[in-house]
Each structure stands twice: as structure tokens, then as C-alpha cells.
Amino acid sequence: MKTFPSFFHSLTTLFFFFSLSFQASPSESLYREIHQLISFKNVLPDKNLLQDWSSNKNPCTFNGVTCRDDKVTSIDLSSKPLNVGFSAVASSLMTLTGLESLFLSNSHINGSISDFKCSASLTSLDRSRNSLSGPVTTLTSLGSCSGLKFLNVSSNTLYFPGKVSGGSKLNSLEVLDLSSNSLSGANVVGWVLSYGCGELKHLAISGNKISGDVDVSRCVHLTFLDVSRCVNLKFLDVSSNNFSTRIPFLGDCSALQHFDISGNKLSGDFSRAISTCTELRSLSISGNQFVGLIPSLPLKSLQYLSLAENKFTGDTLTGLDLSGNDFHGTVPPFFGSCSLLESLVLSSNNYSGKLPMDYGYVTEDERSQNDVEIMLSSSIWWSDVNDSTIWEDQIFYVLAIIYGIVSIYSLIQFVRLQLRVLDYVWKTQHSFYFLHFVLPGVRAVVFIFRRNVLNMHSQIMQHIFLDIPSLGFFTTYALLVLAWASIYCQARSISTDGLNFSFFTITGIVYVVQISLWLLWMWKPVGVMLILSKMFLAGVSLFVALGFLLHGARLFLMIHRFPVESKGRRKKLQEIGYITIICFTGFLIRCIMMCFAAFYEGANLDVMDHPILNLIYYLLVEIIPFSLVMFILRKLPPKRDITPEDLHEKIMLSSLILWTDVNGSPIWEEQTFNVLAILYGILSIYYVLGLWFLSSGGMC
């Protein structure tokens, strides 16, 4: 009886260890997968590349391998220098029975992609940024991959052989990226979609030399299309799909003649997307969700335009400009039914014949009532300039040159001030000239590269490039208000301890609010966020204008009360008065223009395709006021009579004092770390914005 428990205990222990050994050993399916994985490793030139891939280990522990239910479901060998032919990948990896995802981007894979098979469970295949070659038609082998939904073969050297028989058999895909290959010709997209697009939602063919027609109107599930850099594209039809939020990115569409985006859910500013489609003849945007006023379309060759079934608003038609086209024959009679039409521009066409005296609204009675004008030879200069890309480029180049001159002059003044005032502490005048050097320089660079700014995928980045200098000018002239407030308080024996704190607090709040609006816009790109951003800048401009009016007028009146005994005091009085009037007027005009830009699309300054409006705006609110202020403040402190030896000694002494004070002062230490924290915060924000911008460009 005593041996029974011992025997039972031994049996239980044996059964327990047997169970553990059974659970620890790979299943039969894993043995087959180990053999395939090790076979792939053995063909690699670098035997040390996948060191943890060993036949005596569970493959689920291999680097880059993911398992589920004792089956290899995902392999990620991206950015590993495999240096192997595609045939080895196809025979060893793609036939794993449970494999669902295979990522081989930038893995130095070469060779042709013909004649391969894959597991029916494979849903995602990424072979981008390799050296795969051969005709793209060999992708028909993917017909055996019945479950494949995602295929990325971008950035290879695939080509289209021209005339082919049969179709692509890619009708099960949801995402297809063929961008940045060597595809050319007029039948590429037709071949891809020859068997229908089935579930296709994302198609990228940018960075090729595709020409001819692109008709994806039957792809009812398509939500993303990138044809940027397809500079030879002439026909693009993406009608009756599920595109939403924005128009498919076109890039340089100078050869495009037919563009149909009807029957989608698009919104936003469609004129921006077609700004470079100068040869467009047919445009249909009907059946979408565009709102607001109909924008100006600088399309000289346009013959057909459909805007039906949208949410455009505005008054009854009062003006129609059809100049600069190739219309011929007699003037269409339907204009006679437009009783409110006041202006009809038909210049630079081939109309013939005469207009009847009783031509609808051009009778003497209605002409006197409506002030109707018929112009067959003249034109409206404003429209001609705005619609001309040559004038547009020249105006923005002129703005860039003017801003560059202001920036260089400010740099010269800053250097002169540094040579005259050898103190190591920057005064307000130092900061003023330095910011006046940086901000106009930024404006000049943005205007020089405005085409690149306009063609950005992300609309928020365009606004950031334009709004940052505006915030910078706010900071620059707020410094001047701070200096005047300090002078007034010191003259009245009032403590100035809280002035600097108030200045930095208000400035910090302004920047935090603006950055928050940008981030909210990234998170939810709706039109109301743009309106809030514009109204916020308008409020900031009004705040600065009132600051100049308050502190400038107060300082002016204080100096005016004292007897003007010296010429210097009279000059200082005049300077304060002039600068107050100039800055108050400039920031008030900025406030008014920003309000118009927020609610009236015709005054939108950010799109930079209204050259005359931008020229007037930047001249009135920045260039002229700030140039006048720089001219008034051109006089620098008197130059001290010192020898070169004294200059060298003073610089060395100032540097030594600065070094000693900074290293021995806890205040300086704290301020230094605060500045570093702010800089790291700004860099982090730019890093996040950059990552978001790169990710918004799609897989390309």
C-alpha cells in the first residue's frame, strides 16, 4: 500500500514532462516551414546575415518572423542586404502555406518576376525599392495568389512591353503601387484594369512616363489615385468613384487635356489642383461637394466645363469672360436671356458677323438700366494679369527681390550696429534688425519656390510657410511696443518688472494657439479650422495695432508735454509719431485683409494664384510700412573713437566677463536650459510635422 502513491507520483511526473516535451516541439507544419526558411537562408551570399535562423530552433523565434497558431504568418526582411534573385524568394518564402504578409522593401532583390507561385493565404506583398526588372505584364502570375490585397512594386525597373494579349488578372487587389518604374506608353492603365478593378481602392502610377488615357470610372471602390509626375498624361477619368476630401494629386499636368472627376465626394479648392493644367480642354467636376464661390480658372484652352450638382453659392450671373479662347461663328443667342448680365468679354476669339441692335439685354432701354457693356476687342487687365502665368511668376519674383533687398539692408544695419555697440548683451535694436533680416529672407525664399509650395500634397504645410513670417513680424514689432512702454514707465518712475514677463507670456500664448490650430487642422482638415486660423491672425494684428496706438500715442504725448528745447528731442518726437501712424495703419490693414481672406474665397491670399491681390497686400501691410520704419530708424548710435588695440581688448574683456557671468550665475544657467528646452520643443514640433507630411504623401 505504501508503494502505490510513489508509483502514482512517478507516473504523474513522467506524464507531465512528456506533455512539456510534446508542447515544446514544433508541429509537423512548422518542420516544413523550417526547411523552407533554412533553404532560403542557405542561398544568401552573406551567411552571417540571418544568424538566428537555425534548424534546431522554433521558426517563430526567428528575426523578422511572426507566427500565429504555430504557423508563420508574416516575414519582414525590409532593408536587409539579401542580394539574392527573386526566384529564390518566390520558391522558398512565397509558398509558405500560412504566410499572410511578406515585406521585402529595399532588400537588394534582383532579377525578373516571371513564373512564380504563392500561397493562397498571402494578402500583402511589398517588393518596393529593389532591382526587379522585366515586363510588368509578368504580374499576371499573381493570378494564383487569390487572396492578395496589397501589392507594392514601386521604385524598380519594370517596363510595359506595348501591345500585349490578355489582361492583368489583378482584379482582387485593393492597393496597387506601380510608381517610379520605367512604365511608358498609352495602354498601361488600360492593361492594369483590363479585367476590371474589382475591389481596387488605391492606385499609384506616379513617376513613370505614362501617356494617353487613364480611365478608372469603373473602379467604384477607388479612393486614392496618384498620377503625379506623369507629365505626358492627356486623359484622366476618375468619375463615379469614392474619392473624398481632396482631388487626386496631379503634379505637373501641363499635357492633360481631359479631366473628369464627376460623381465623387470631393471638396476643397479644385482650382489649385489644376493650376498647371494649361492645355485642359474638358473639365467636369459635377456631382461632388464643392462649396463657396466658383473660383477663377486660368484655362485658355477650355472648351467644356461642367459644374453641376455641387454646392456653389453666389449671386445671379452678372459677368462672363470668355476671352482668349478659340470660339468661332456667331455669338450664341442664349446670352439674350441673361437679363442681369452686365459684362460680356469675348476678346481674342474668332467670332464673326454683327450683333443685332435688339440683342436681348443690349437694347437701349436695358443698356441704360443695367449699364451693359459688350467688349469684342478690349479686355479687363485685372483678369488678364491674374490668368497669365508669365505675369504671375514675374509679380512674385518682384516680391521676392524686394524682400531680399529689405533682408540684405537689415543685415547690413545689424552688422554696423554690432561694430558700433560692443556690449555682449543684445538690445532691442539688435533683435529688431536681426528679425528684420531673417523674416523677409524667409518670405523671399517662399516666393521664389512658390511653385513647389503650391504643389505640396499637404495644404496645411502651405499655410505654415506663409503664416510663420506673419507671426515673426508680430514678434518683431511687439518688441518696439515693449521698448516704448519701458521708456514711458521709466520716465514716470513706474516699475518695469512686469513688462518683460507680460511680453513673453502674450507672445508664448500667440504661438501656442497658432500651433494648436495647425495641429487641429492636421487632425481634422475642415474649412472651419482655416477660418479660425485666419481670424486668429486678424485678431493678433488688431492687438498689435492697438498696442502701437496706445503706447506710441502715450509716449508721444508725454514727450510733447515737455518743452521741445533740442533738435534731437524734436526729431525723436517726430519719429515716434510717424512710426505709430505707419505701424497702426499697416497692422489694421492686415487685420481687415485677413478677415476678407477668411470669409471671401476671391481674397484668399494663401493660394498665391492671385498675383495682383498678393502684390497689393504685401506692399501695404509689410514692404512699404516696414521699409519706412527702417528708414526712420536708420540712424545708429554714435561710433566710439577707439583704436584697434582698444577694440581687441574690449572684445576679449567682454567675452571674458560674459563667460564668467554666465558660468557663475544660476539665473543664466536656468535661462540657458529654458532656451534649450524651447529649442528642443520647436524641433520636436517640426519633426512631428515632417513625419506627418511624409506619411501624407502615400506609399510613394
From TrEMBL:
InterPro entries: Leu-rich_rpt, LRR_N_plant-typ, THH1/TOM1/TOM3, THH1/TOM1/TOM3_dom. The keyword Calcium does not apply. Keywords: Leucine-rich repeat, Membrane, Repeat, Signal, Transmembrane, Transmembrane helix, Vacuole. Its main location: membrane. Residues 380-644 form the THH1/TOM1/TOM3 domain. It is a multi-pass membrane protein. The chain crosses the membrane at residues 395-412, 432-450, 470-489, 501-523, 535-557, 578-600, 612-633, 673-694. GO terms for cellular component: vacuolar membrane. It is found in: Vacuole membrane. The keyword Signal applies. Residues 1-23 form the signal peptide. Pfam families: LRR_1, LRRNT_2, THH1_TOM1-3_dom. It comes from the Eukaryota. Residues 33-67 form the Leucine-rich repeat-containing N-terminal plant-type domain. Belongs to the plant tobamovirus multiplication TOM1 protein family. This is Leucine-rich repeat-containing N-terminal plant-type. It comes from Arabidopsis thaliana x Arabidopsis arenosa.
